């Protein structure tokens, strides 16, 4: 039910498109006083991972931008789902799984931690907006109280009887063949 263009675009957003402007200009990655190079000038090399000193605020800002793009992709894919299909897992599993994996993969890449508050808010938002009228096809109900009580009491009463039987049989003293 999804057009090929939407599926081709279903990959997680690229990291360079969501970096803050200062990072793209090299200011956040360069030591103070160093001449800033644009990303285009230094496209062939990237700084070693140890040289990048990202602050928690920068990582949080990057993850917020990326997660917003993950959400926009999810909304775009869900736009191709008709209202009667919203509760069919076979139809919505791909966009839902892409949202979840996009949020989780980027959290892992940025060492941001998953699950996190922002990811949970997007997951809850998806349920509230798209799946609020969905119910399981056959809802599992608790058994009646009398059946439940019998299932709980039967093993409790059976255990002392079996222990007594084992002790009584072991007191005989004769070797069992």
TrEMBL record:
A Gene Ontology CC term for this entry?
plasma membrane
GO molecular function terms listed in the Swiss-Prot or TrEMBL record: coreceptor activity
Name the residues that span the membrane. 147-168
> Which family is this sequence assigned to?
Belongs to the RAMP family.
Classify the source by domain of life.
Eukaryota
Topology versus the membrane: Single-pass type I membrane protein
Provide the GO biological process annotations. angiogenesis; calcium ion transport; cellular response to hormone stimulus; G protein-coupled receptor signaling pathway; intracellular protein transport; protein localization to plasma membrane; receptor internalization; regulation of G protein-coupled receptor signaling pathway
Q: Which PANTHER family match?
A: RECEPTOR ACTIVITY MODIFYING PROTEIN RAMP (PTHR14076), RECEPTOR ACTIVITY-MODIFYING PROTEIN 2 (PTHR14076:SF9)
Q: Which Gene3D superfamilies match?
A: Receptor activity modifying family (1.10.150.510)
Q: Can you say where in the cell this protein is located?
A: Cell membrane
Keyword Endoplasmic reticulum appears in the UniProt entry: no
Q: What is this protein called?
A: Receptor activity modifying protein 2
- Protein keywords: Cell membrane, Disulfide bond, Membrane, Receptor, Signal, Transmembrane, Transmembrane helix, Transport
> Chief location of this protein?
membrane
Kindly give the InterPro entries that the UniProt entry links to this protein: RAMP, RAMP_sf
């Amino acid at each position: 039910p999804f057009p090929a263009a939407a599926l081709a675009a279903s990959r997680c957003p690229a990291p360079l498109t969501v970096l803050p402007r200062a990072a793209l200009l090299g200011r956040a990655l360069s030591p103070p006083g160093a001449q800033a190079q644009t990303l285009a000038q230094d496209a062939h090399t990237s700084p070693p991972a140890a040289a990048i000193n990202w602050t928690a605020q920068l990582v949080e800002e990057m993850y917020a931008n990326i997660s917003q793009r993950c959400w926009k992709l999810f909304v775009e894919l869900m736009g191709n789902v008709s209202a009667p299909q919203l509760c069919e897992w076979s139809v919505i599993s791909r966009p839902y799984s892409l949202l979840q994996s996009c949020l989780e993969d980027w959290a892992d890449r940025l060492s941001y931690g998953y699950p996190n508050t922002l990811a949970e808010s997007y997951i809850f938002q998806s349920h509230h907006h798209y799946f609020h009228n969905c119910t399981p096809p056959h809802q599992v109900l608790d058994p009646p109280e009398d059946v439940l009580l019998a299932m709980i009491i039967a093993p409790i009463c059976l255990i002392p009887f079996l222990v007594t039987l084992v002790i009584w049989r072991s007191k005989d003293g004769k070797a069992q063949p």
